[in-house]
């Protein structure tokens, strides 16, 4: 009976600690690899000649094969055991050279797309300040982009954008499992309703939309119908599927950067922001004084020159205080 064999690599200092041997019509194939099964990620396999298989190989695992057939650029391997029985050896290319990866159905779902995210600044913004909700676990770090982050309690969403003390955009991050569970228990409906109160908001999902129809613990049609209903009821809050976590992080960065440019450059956007104001829950928000947006609007009505964004000059704040002697204390900006 044909068997899949896994032996310990006799080269002790090798990072690929195991040898994988599978039968093949043209002769057995041998690979060096780093583990005995692709459980949490696809395993890189370095092909070697059959002569490298030791005569006294230290066999770690031995599994009878039900099937081992080549189909196109991959070899489908099916073992005779109840769990972890299906896998593929995929022959592909990376950075101009031929490579082989060993993947299972689980790791195939998590496979990275064959893309490289750009490093160019979004909207030309030199340093985008992004607010991260204090309840967010394993938050995006935006390490590859021109971003600074600040942790605070956001009223809605996981990643937000502050313009003149107002939350003008927010993104709610979801894994597929969290998306489905929150949709079923009704929590997602309230989250989307909160996001719809903002000028700009979105929900980003770290998976493919096609994975919705591969769910086996709930009827896929229930999830698809629920998502469609949310989009019809709150069309201003798109639900975006981004395939992987890095792509979802990249999309979030670009979305918030575009929202920032929209907020500070378009007069119509500024009017809408003032009508849909959502204060950010930070200690600085406890002051009774005016916000930068309030003083900016007053200065414009008084004919004082002020910039469209950023801090106001001290003389503008002093002019506001002189015109409002009975108002509460400002924040000293």
UniProtKB/TrEMBL annotation:
Task: Show the Gene3D superfamilies listed in the entry.
Answer: 3.40.50.10130, E3-binding domain
The UniProt GO MF terms for this protein read:
acyltransferase activity; DNA binding; nuclease activity
ERCC4 domain boundaries: 129-209
Judging by the UniProt lineage, the source's domain of life is: Bacteria
Q: Which Gene Ontology biological process is one annotated for this entry?
A: DNA metabolic process
According to its UniProt entry, this protein's organism is Mycobacterium adipatum
Query: Which keywords describe this protein according to UniProt?
Result: DNA-binding
List the Pfam families hit by this protein, alphabetically.
Answer: ERCC4, Lsr2_DNA-bd
Q: Key word Metal-binding present in the record?
A: no
Please give the name of this protein.
ERCC4 domain-containing protein
Q: Where is the signal peptide?
A: none
Is DNA-binding found in the keyword set? yes
